[in-house]
Amino acid sequence: MPQLSSGGGDDMGANDEMIAFKDEGEQEEKIQENAFTERDLADLKSSLVNESEISQSPGVARRGQQPEPRCYVEKHREHLNGVTKQQDGGMYKTSYPGYPFLMLPDPYLQIVTDCVSPPQSNKVSVVQQSHGMHPLSSLLPYGPNEHFSPSPPHLPTDMSQKTGVHRPQSQDISGFYSLPPGSVGQISPSMGWFPHSLMLGPSGMHPTGIPHPAIVPPSAKQEHDHYDRGMYAKPQGEAKREKEPKKPVIKKPLNAFMLYMKEMRAKVIAECTLKESAAINQILGRRWHALTRDEQAKYYELARKERQLHMQLYPSWSARDNYVRTLFGKKKRRKREKQQDSNTDPGSPKKCRARFGLNQQTDWCGPCRCVPETLSASPPPPCLCRFDRLPPPVLSSRPFIRPSVRLSDPVCMSLR
DNA sequence: GGGCCTTTGAAGGTA
DNA sequence: TACCTTCAAAGGCCC
């Protein structure tokens, strides 16, 4: 994962994704830098081509198999060079520190894949428009149909992302999203273009009155639903069952890759006739790695802006809020948790000899006991508990309530 | 019906 | 500080 050098200076944190942007005069240097990346990408491409040759199944890989979708990354450098050139000559060259999403060069939205064409083909992939999507679509409702409108209502109609001819006076997203301190509750006219703002009920509103796509109802199913489905109007019967109204869930802001996925997913689906997200995400992951730093930088910047907006809208929100809901709610059982269950006595806090000692073997978990009837055998079978090979550990006295297992945790090896 | 899969990055927690 | 875990999106699949 290419870590972008920090541009520093952002008090919102995540300096690791800040990019030291360069002016157009340094583009050649960038190209030279990319040359190094090209070599790496060449390896990637060759490996991907091999994979494509191996995998002929057009379908989606089934569970337990490594899904090998039909389409793979074709990171054509000619195209990217063209991008660079266009950026040099186009408006994109001045994108940073301005905001890129308002001036995205079209090549940036182009698909770099030959998912249908055979890998050996020299045919350049057909360049498609970007399905009207936009990297900042996540700042629009977080939903499956929230593809970015080519001409959002809040933007001038001639502000097409294709040409990017016009730019707002302010290049920074703050002109569209951010709210100055103390004015959070005042929705600027520019905020009014949130499409769901007319649909959200009170529960979908931020306490400040600002609707935000990150707010979703709390139930597990609704995690995958979204605001524009009228889910805020719950049946009365269901409402009665709820003793107390649940707080709407504020979801995490999307990171750079998620923004990239949201933009490119539809295109991959269209080109590869795939629908299963697992396979699509693999493709997108490869494409993500195949992107140049400049291309990735756009998404990092978008993500940074989104986090910035998120923090402004929900200053007290923490990612841990959603952790708690998951851990103690009924959302889902992680695979790791299931594996743990399969190796331990469910409902019992028993945890090996390290916790209970040799004198309380009856309190050990099943794997640590290594089959009770064999414990008395001589010699005893090797116990799965790794503490057999370690000196008696001094463990914390805190109760064993952590739901997940870490490699460093003093739990049975068999639970890994 | 709900978890799993699959990806990367951000963030929180722990040692 | 390093490491680990969870969540964010997405939709078909599977139990």
From TrEMBL:
GO MF entries: DNA-binding transcription factor activity, RNA polymerase II-specific; RNA polymerase II cis-regulatory region sequence-specific DNA binding
UniProt superkingdom: Eukaryota
InterPro entries in the record: Catenin-bd_sf (IPR027397), CTNNB1-bd_N (IPR013558), HMG_box_dom (IPR009071), HMG_box_dom_sf (IPR036910), TCF/LEF (IPR024940)
GO cellular component, as recorded: beta-catenin-TCF complex; chromatin
Transmembrane residue ranges: none
Ranges of biased composition (kind: Basic and acidic residues): 19-43
Domain HMG box, first and last residues per copy: 250-318
Localization (cell): Nucleus
Residue ranges, annotated region (Disordered): 1-70, 148-169, 329-353
Listed Gly residues bias regions: 1-11
Annotated keywords: Activator, DNA-binding, Nucleus, Transcription, Transcription regulation, Wnt signaling pathway
CDD domains in alphabetical order: HMG-box_TCF7-like
Keyword Transcription regulation included in the entry's annotation: yes
Feature: compositional bias, Polar residues: 47-58, 158-169
DNA-binding region (UniProt annotation): 250-318
GO terms classed as biological process: canonical Wnt signaling pathway; cell proliferation in dorsal spinal cord; endothelial cell fate specification; heart development; midbrain development; positive regulation of cell population proliferation; rostrocaudal neural tube patterning
PANTHER family linked to this entry: TRANSCRIPTION FACTOR 7, TRANSCRIPTION FACTOR 7 FAMILY MEMBER
Family: Belongs to the TCF/LEF family.
Protein name: Transcription factor 7
Organism, as annotated: Gadus morhua (Atlantic cod)
Gene from which the chain derives: TCF7
